[in-house]
Amino acid sequence: MPASFDDLLNQILSHNPNIDRDQLITMVDQKKQESHGLLSDEGAIRLVAQQLSVSALPANSIGDQRITSVHAGLNNSTITGQVVMVGDLREFQRSDGTQGKVMRMKVGDKSGQITCVFWDDMADTLARESLVPGSTVRLLHGYTKHGMGGEVEFHLGSRASFQIMKRSQSSEPLTNNITTPGANFRASDQLRFRLLKLQKSQSEKGPTWALCSSESGLLIAKFWDTHAQDVLSMGEGALLLIQDHWVTERNGMVYVNIGSKSKVTKESADFVAETPVASIGSLHPGPALWTISGKIIERSEPREIETREGRRTRVSNINIEDDTARIRVSLWDTHAEKTESLRIGDHVKITGVKVRENMNGEKEASTVFLTQLEKQQ
């Protein structure tokens, strides 16, 4: 272990005289085992320090965390990465009437990527810097939590700061040192898919969203410009051939975009087969959407929560199992309301769920806004 690790151990021991050194090292090792190798020594000792209510560990005593070692629940974390995507500055009103600002940026290192959320003054500062992909930044004293989609997010509030290590003057191609989520469709390909569910954006100029079934699996498409209204006329169940689309990724989700330069052709042939139902035991985390089915063995009542942005929403959980495994599914927003009509022992089919891995290495699933949930006989 590096010499700085001993300094951190000694600081924790000075705050906890009832714990000896061997016990503390065992606690650190246990945290690393629970993460299935994702936590470094530095990441593990930070979690132990928070568990023992030891705050303000010196930032210069440990190295920056690898992005894959970042887990929800950290209160003072530092990462360095290359900018992958920068969003727009957005203003909103909190439930107490105060104005807030938020801006998102995705960064990556050799181990993976993470969405970083800048709040209020930090969001203003980031907006003024006008960073573009290819820049390298160091983000200090952030805290981490699960976002609405279940992914871990890195948040920067009043205690945080960031340093620009390298400024890119133009959007440089991302290097191979950054791990990007894969998808089985590319921008230059023709793409055939069947429309399963359509939802028009509330904004007049916003897209029409579609949950689709393709040969490569489930995907979410965004129809822009005149296609936004045209696809609503085609209706759910239509089979489409898409040309000249482009692919984007946000918050761990991959989207197919169809815009003014895209060509959309409605086909009559029944080319795309029904999306297969995956066994729960075969699920794995990533940007893909899955269709699962099983028997409900546990359920919770919907509860209302308020997001950091002041939006109120509802969430409930069900545990389902099939012949291979069981999994907890978080039902968000309108899907949470459907829990009230579900009972233990009911069989359900859920089309379009995301899968992630929690800190204990267990797989969990969550709905997205286009998920379809149906009770089976």
In short:
The chain is of the alpha+beta class and 377 residues long. The chain folds into 4 domains: 3-63, no CATH class; 77-166, OB fold (Dihydrolipoamide Acetyltransferase, E2P) (Beta Barrel); 191-267, OB fold (Dihydrolipoamide Acetyltransferase, E2P) (Beta Barrel), CATH 2.40.50.140; 280-376, Beta Barrel (OB fold (Dihydrolipoamide Acetyltransferase, E2P)), CATH 2.40.50.140.
Structure notes:
The chain has 377 residues and is an alpha+beta fold. It contains six helices and 20 strands. The chain has helices spanning 3-15, 21-34, 41-51, 121-129, 227-234, 334-337; strands at residues 77-86, 90-93, 99-108, 113-119, 136-146, 152-156, 161-166, 191-200, 208-214, 217-223, 239-243, 246-250, 253-258, 263-267, 286-299, 303-306, 312-321, 326-332, 347-357, 363-376. Strand 2 (90-93) and strand 3 (99-108) form a beta hairpin. Helix 1 packs parallel to helix 3 (41-51) and helix 2 (21-34) packs across helix 3 (41-51). The relative contact order is 0.10.
